[in-house]
Design a protein that fits this description.
The protein is an alpha/beta fold. It is built from 15 helices and 21 strands. The protein has a 10-stranded mixed beta sheet, with helices on both faces. Strands 16-17-21-18-19-20 form a 6-stranded mixed beta sheet, sandwiched between helices. A 5-stranded parallel beta sheet has the order 3-2-1-4-5, sandwiched between helices. Strand 19, helix 13 and strand 20 form a beta-alpha-beta unit. Helix 5 crosses helix 9. About 45% of the residues are buried. Cell wall formation. One of its GO terms (cellular component) is cytoplasm.
Length: about 450
């Protein structure tokens, strides 16, 4: 299919972070764009401000007439949508061209020079850094992001069409729709076992992804991953590595060693050693296409971060409030490392909303161990997303596994009253569900009237 011949695009699940980036892209390319999502959010409000019509009613009668002409319309849906969704069922029964988001990304990128970021952790931050580096260094680039990049207040960076940056998502093997010229794999930790069943099947899918890289293409891999590629990390044996790390005025300063040079005294403002690695591989990928290293080093210092990725909500001498998307034990460990490195003597309270019954079940012991590291733990009920409950898998069950006496289970309804009365130095809201909706309420507790 040639997307140039498509004039009308209807999204089912348009408010999703990846879906909305595609919606913006098509709107900016003068296509007719509309869609459905189950509720209005900041993202859907932003889409409507661009002139994109968004409905919250699953009702075919509310779909504008121009989107019911199947000859020049495509339907893009997210796997999070139920197969019984009324609009999706209508489009299927009437033989519309229907695509998953990943399939459309594959179509968009196949005629461009594509840089793809894969891995179970770090995709959004790495791709956001990479898109920012290229944009700052005046490379002709479009970057589709899985989060809102603070520098652009958007999940889409549009600075040209020659090069594309995309997240290569392992969920439901979506990344096998891509054929990148350059790719990286940040991690291959077990995740999405509800889809893959066993860790080995997930590992196999990453191997399949590497086979999707175009002939004469390039693969960058974290130094601990046993795949052939250009390595990066902290070890001196890695092709690209970081050394001389220090903290100055709350930010990292470090050197990058490349196969041919050393770039010294780079500034980077995102906390956490994992973010240093994200910045390193973004730097390496951008350098691979010929971007000058002096420009890349400067651009790393201007990257402001991604919303809900160690996102400072309040930062004073007496109190810090951070919101983060971490939803896997490895990510929670990385968050803990970042907080302890920046605030080694402070009391840290984490409010965690587990995401998915299956993930909670599969990694219960690992979650318990990672959460126990914090000084105080508040658990919310599991956010189900696309899943039905699993018998016996509850936040109360998880709480009992955490070896720390300073722990409790709260509902979202009584969370704010509780937070108003706790005493802590560092407060973290953590998870991939709807915990983000509580952030403004918590922030107001500490700022309104102060």
């Amino acid at each position: 299919m040639n997307l140039k011949n498509i004039h009308t695009i209807y999204f089912i699940g348009i408010g999703g972070i990846g879906m909305s980036a595609l919606a913006r892209y098509f709107k900016f390319n003068n296509k007719n764009v509309a869609g459905y999502d189950k509720k209005k959010t900041e993202i859907t409000n932003a889409l409507e401000a661009l002139g994109i019509q968004v409905s919250t009613n699953d009702n075919v009668a509310e779909i504008p007439a121009k989107y019911l002409n199947k000859e020049n319309t495509i339907i893009i849906y997210t796997p999070a949508i139920s197969s019984s969704h009324t609009e999706l069922t209508y489009f299927r029964e009437n033989d519309f061209k229907i695509y998953k988001r990943a399939e459309v990304l594959g179509l968009i990128t196949k005629d461009t020079f594509c840089l793809a970021v894969a891995g179970t952790h770090g995709k959004t931050t790495t791709s956001s850094i990479l898109g920012h580096l290229l944009a700052e260094c005046e490379v002709d680039v479009t970057a589709f992001l899985g989060g809102i990049a603070e520098n652009y207040n958007s999940n889409l960076i549009l600075k040209g069409t020659e090069i594309t940056v995309v997240e290569a998502d392992e969920f439901d093997r979506s990344f096998l729709q891509l054929s990148p010229d350059i790719a990286c794999i940040t991690s291959t930790d077990a995740d999405h076992l509800d889809i893959y069943g066993e860790k080995e099947a997930l590992q196999d899918s990453f191997v399949e992804f590497t086979k999707r890289i175009k002939p004469n293409g390039t693969l960058f891999v974290h130094e601990d991953i046993e795949l052939d590629g250009i390595t990066y990390g902290f070890k001196e044996t890695s092709d690209y590595h970081i050394k001389n790390i220090r903290i100055q005025n709350g930010s990292y300063v470090f050197d990058i060693v490349t196969p041919t040079a050393i770039v010294i005294a780079i500034q980077f403002h995102l906390p956490g050693r994992h973010n240093l690695l994200n910045g390193l591989v973004a730097f390496a990928m951008a350098e691979k296409i010929g971007t000058p290293t002096d420009c890349l080093a400067k651009a790393l210092g201007t990257f402001k971060g991604v919303k809900r990725r160690f996102s400072y909500q309040i930062k004073t001498d007496d109190f810090v409030f951070v919101d983060d998307y971490a939803h896997h034990p490895t990510e929670i460990n990385a968050l803990h490392q970042a907080v302890r490195e920046m605030y080694p003597t402070k009391k840290v309270t984490i409010i965690f909303q587990p995401h998915l019954f299956s993930r909670t079940k599969d990694f219960a012991d690992e979650f318990a161990e990672s959460l126990a590291q914090f000084d105080e733990i508040i658990l919310l009920e599991i956010y189900p997303a696309r899943e039905k409950p699993l018998e016996g898998i509850t936040s109360s069950w998880l709480l009992n596994k955490i070896k720390n006496d300073q722990k409790q289970l709260l509902t979202k309804e009584n969370l704010i009253n509780h937070v108003a009365n706790i005493k802590t130095d560092i407060l973290l809201t953590v998870g991939a569900g709807d915990i983000g909706e509580e952030v403004v309420k918590i922030k107001n507790l500490y700022t309104v009237g102060n």
